[in-house]
Amino acid sequence: MSAPLELDGKRVLLGLTGGIACYKSAELVRLLTKAGAEVQVVMSEAAQEFITAVTMQALSGRPVVTSAWDDREPNNMAHINLTRGTDAIVIAPASADCIARLAQGRADDLLSLLCLARPWTAGEARCPLLVAPAMNREMWAHPATQRNVAQIVADGAVLLGPGHGDQACGEIGDGRMLEPAELLDDLIAFFQPKLLLGRTVLVTAGPTFEAIDPVRGITNLSSGKMGFAIARAAREAGAEVTLVAGPVDLPTPRGVRRIDVRSARQMHDAVLPLASGHDVFVATAAVADWRPATLAEHKIKKDGKKLAPTFELTENPDILAAVAALPLRPYCVGFAAESEQLLVHARAKLERKGIPLIVGNLGPATFGRDDNALLLVDAQTHRELPEGGGTADKLSLARLLVREIALRIVPHSV
Ligand code: C5P
């Protein structure tokens, strides 16, 4: 099953103001439209010095609006028409001048004018404004810019970035526009309900690797995708998220703190001191149950006698059970990867580990794959995700699971 279009049906107004980062906005339009959004581009005069309206029209599939006096609008009110029925305004890049204008509530160019004219209900913007600053680091650090940024945030704008790093001017510092893929992820996250706002979530993910000698080890086929999706979904829901990851090749979800480990014991030692400081612990990692009792100092060589080496194994610590036994324990969610009789095994595991919620899935059907089917089991009930059976992509499932967790830790939150 392919991932759903994350911004399907969303109408996004993308504003460009003057800055070299305008070249990245071309890629941003592509990503937004690929994610299913309808994108209406509005460009300031300065933005047109950096990239043409022709490019942005070709990529968005709609005429770009550049002037408040655009007489293609039958009522000649571009600033009103453009903000009604729009799900979000994203200004990327937002220049220092643009932010100053927004802070002052200016109305002498189309973009500031339409931001001023966007609809509000009871103090809340029905058409939210997301601003991605892009400027030289000195301009960003200037007290005037910082004052203006604080003002627009106080007025309800959401700040995306800026990033840190090399700047087109050759200097290095804060003020870079976020990359298009980062802006896309932030916009997708913006639309998710903030069910875990102010909460802290600790997630383990991936396999562990138990060394036999300096070059070999015991591991398993877990890809870490489910755990990474849960970390992302929890972050999108407003939580502060720490992800303790075994050896996997996956990018860290935006805004998530990641700690890389290799063995079960390292994972245990990373998790245990952190666990009590978190509200929720989700153990998705496929932790190796055993490790070689001794680690060979050098690579084990064939001895020419065709005798295979034998290993003694010793049990690894059960991280989830250890967290569940803490006097100050987070709400613990376990995973059970089984090959049959999911409900029976999952419920037995729930009791054995002393945890309130376990998520069953079929190991061979999930390891390494992008989609999955979950069976949520608590003391009284069980329920399939997605509802009614079948499979769904792991991020969609992770969002459903986050919702279930939020329901259990903050009743009435959903
Ligand atoms: O004991 P079993 O491996 O069947 O249980 C699976 C659940 O326990 C998963 O949530 C897994 O992350 C967790 N686990 C753990 N430490 C272990 C083994 C499993 O945290 N050593």
Radius of gyration: 25 Å
- Helix and strand composition category: alpha/beta
Major sheet description: 8 strands, mixed
Could you tell me the number of beta strands? 23
Q: What share of residues is helical?
A: 25-40%
* CATH class bucket of the largest domain: Alpha Beta
The CATH superfamily of the largest domain appears as CoaB-like
* Silhouette: elongated
CATH topology of the largest domain: Rossmann fold
Specify the number of helices. Answer: 15
Can you list the strand order of the major beta sheet? Answer: 14-13-10-15-18-19-21-22
How many structural domains in the coordinates? 2
Q: Cofactors and ligands present?
A: cytidine-5'-monophosphate
Averaging pLDDT over every residue, what do you get? 94
Distance between the termini: 27 Å
What do you see in this structure?
- The chain has 414 residues and is α/β, with parallel strands linked by helices.
- It folds into 2 domains: 11-190, Rossmann fold (3-Layer(aba) Sandwich); 200-409, Rossmann fold (3-Layer(aba) Sandwich).
- It contains 15 helices and 23 strands.
- It has an 8-stranded mixed β-sheet with strand order 14-13-10-15-18-19-21-22, sandwiched between helices. A 5-stranded parallel β-sheet has the order 2-1-3-6-7, with helices on both faces. It has a two-stranded antiparallel ribbon with strand order 4-5.
- A hairpin with a 2-residue loop joins strand 4 (120-121) and strand 5.
- The longest helix has 16 residues, at 394-409.
- It starts with 10 loop residues before the first strand and ends in a 5-residue tail after the last helix.
- The structure holds cytidine-5'-monophosphate.
- Residues 204, 264, 283-285, 287, 316, 318-320, 334-336, 349 line the site of cytidine-5'-monophosphate (C5P).
